[in-house]
Specification:
It is built from 19 helices and 14 strands. By secondary structure, the chain is of the alpha/beta class. Pathway: Bacterial outer membrane biogenesis; LPS core biosynthesis.
C-alpha cells in the first residue's frame, strides 16, 4: 500500500510539473519547492523548543492561527515552524510574523520526510484539519515525536472508514492525539479502533472572534456608506453575482451593496461592472467619488473579514458551486447569513440554519423574497443576527483546550 501511495505522489508531482507552464498555481507550487533542501539547510536548529504546524492552504492556516498564537503566548521562547502545501496559503502568509520559519512542505516522499524531520527535529508536530501525509507521519512516529491533529472532522464516506482504506487507517494510528470537532467524529474513530480522541470543537470560532475583536476600520468603506445600511456579499462566484445583480438592479431603497468577488481578475471585475446598472465604483479607483456610489466592488484581497462589521445582512458565495465559503466571519458580527443550496458539508452552516441565524436559497425568486423581508422588516434581520452570534459564542474555547493539553506534555 505504501508503494502505491509513493507512486501516486510521484505521478501527482509530475502532473503539476507538466501543468506549470499553463497554470499559475502549479507554477508557484513548483517554484516554491525549487532548491527546497538548500532553503531548509539555511535555517538553524538551535536549542530552543520547536513546534511544527502544517496547513494545507489559507483556510487551514486561519484555523490554526489561534493555536499558534496561543502557544507563542504560553511559551514565548518556543520556535514555530509553519509549512504550507498550497501556494494560495504560502504566498499570502509567507510574511506572517507569528511563525519563526515559513516554508512550502516538500513533496511527501520517504527521502524528503527523513531529511526534513532530521534537520528540524521538532518537539511536536500539529496538522490542521485534513492534512494526512503518510511518509511525514511515519517518520515522526518512528522518531517518537508527538503528533497532533486538530479541528478535524470525520465523515463515514472518507477513506478511513472504507474496506480499502487500510493505509489511511494506519496514518490515524500514528497520531498521539486527535482533537475533533464533533461527537460523530469520536464515534466513527472509535469504531475503527482509534481512541486517543478528544472532542474540542473547531478553532475557527476562536479565530473569527479574534478577528472581530481586532477588526480594522476601513475609511473608504465608511465614506461609501455614509451611515447607510449595507448588504455585504462575500466570496461570490458568477452564479451568486447573477442572482444578486438581478436584485440590486431593481432595488430602490436606501441599502448599499458591497460585492467581494472570490476571483478578482480584471476580466471578472469588468464583467460585474458591465452587468450592474447602479452607480458602482471599484475600491481601488482613487479618482472615484465613492460617496455617490450605490454599489462598491472590492477588487483587492484582505478586507473581507473586516468588511462584515459594516453589514446588516451577509450573503456568502460558493453555494451554487463546490460549496459555500466562510459563514462564521459574518455570523460573528451578529448579522443574518444567506447562502446557496450546497452547504451540507459545512457543519457550522447546518447549525446556523437550525438555530435561525442563516437562510439558504436555491433560486432568484427565493433570494428576492428573503431580501425583501430582511430589509423591509429589520426586526427579523436583527433577531436572526442575534441567533447567529449566540451560536458562534456557544462554540468558543477549542484553542484553550488544545493548548492546555499540548503544553502539559512538555
Amino acid at each position: 500500500m505504501a508503494w502505491g501511495y509513493y507512486i501516486g505522489i510521484l505521478i501527482y508531482t509530475a502532473v503539476i510539473r507538466l501543468a506549470a507552464p499553463f497554470n499559475e498555481k502549479a507554477a508557484l507550487w513548483i517554484k516554491g519547492r525549487k532548491r527546497i533542501r538548500e532553503k531548509i539547510k539555511q535555517i538553524p536548529r538551535d536549542k530552543e523548543r520547536l513546534v511544527w504546524f502544517h496547513a494545507a492552504s489559507l483556510g487551514e492556516f486561519e484555523q490554526g492561527r489561534p493555536v499558534m498564537e496561543a502557544l507563542k503566548k504560553a511559551e514565548p521562547h518556543t520556535r514555530i515552524l509553519l509549512t504550507f502545501f498550497s501556494p494560495s496559503g504560502y504566498e499570502i502568509r509567507k510574511n506572517y510574523t507569528g511563525a519563526d520559519y515559513i516554508l512550502y512542505l516538500p513533496a511527501d516522499t520517504p527521502s524528503n520526510a527523513r531529511f526534513f524531520i532530521n534537520h528540524f527535529k521538532p518537539d511536536a508536530a500539529l496538522f490542521i484539519k485534513y492534512e494526512f501525509w503518510y511518509n511525514y507521519l511515519a517518520e515522526l512516529y518512528k522518531q517518537n515525536i508527538p503528533i497532533y491533529l486538530f479541528s478535524a472532522i470525520f465523515r463515514k464516506e472518507q477513506p478511513f472508514f472504507k474496506k480499502w482504506g487500510g493505509l489511511h487507517r494506519k496514518m490515524l494510528h500514528f497520531f498521539t492525539r486527535l482533537f475533533v470537532q464533533d461527537a460523530e467524529s469520536v464515534r466513527l474513530l472509535s469504531e475503527i479502533g482509534i481512541h486517543s480522541v478528544q472532542q474540542t470543537g473547531d478553532t475557527r470560532f476562536d479565530r473569527v472572534k479574534q478577528i472581530a475583536t481586532n477588526a480594522k476600520e476601513i475609511g473608504k468603506v465608511e465614506k461609501f456608506l455614509n451611515g447607510s445600511p449595507a448588504v455585504i456579499c462575500g466570496s461570490t462566484w458568477p452564479p451568486d453575482e447573477t442572482l444578486l445583480l438581478d436584485y440590486i438592479n431593481t432595488y430602490t431603497g436606501n441599502y448599499k451593496w458591497i460585492l467581494v468577488p472570490h476571483e478578482i481578475g480584471e476580466n471578472h471585475i469588468k464583467a460585474i461592472l458591465e452587468k450592474c446598472q447602479k452607480r458602482i465604483w471599484r475600491y481601488t479607483d482613487e479618482k472615484a467619488d465613492i460617496s455617490s456610489a450605490e454599489v462598491l466592488i472590492i477588487d483587492c484581497i484582505g478586507l473581507l473579514s473586516s468588511l462584515y462589521r459594516y453589514g446588516r445582512i451577509a450573503y456568502i458565495g460558493g453555494g451554487f458551486g463546490v460549496g459555500i465559503h466562510n459563514t462564521l466571519e459574518a455570523a460573528v458580527y451578529g448579522i443574518p447569513v444567506i447562502f446557496g443550496p450546497k452547504y451540507q458539508k459545512f457543519k457550522e452552516a447546518v447549525h446556523l440554519l437550525q438555530t435561525g441565524g442563516a437562510f439558504s436559497i436555491q433560486k432568484k425568486e427565493q433570494l428576492q423574497e428573503l431580501l425583501d423581508r430582511l430589509i423591509g422588516q429589520p426586526q427579523i434581520a436583527e433577531a436572526a443576527g442575534h441567533k447567529a452570534l449566540e451560536y458562534v459564542n456557544s462554540q468558543l474555547g477549542a484553542t484553550e483546550i488544545i493548548i492546555q493539553y499540548i503544553t502539559s506534555k512538555n
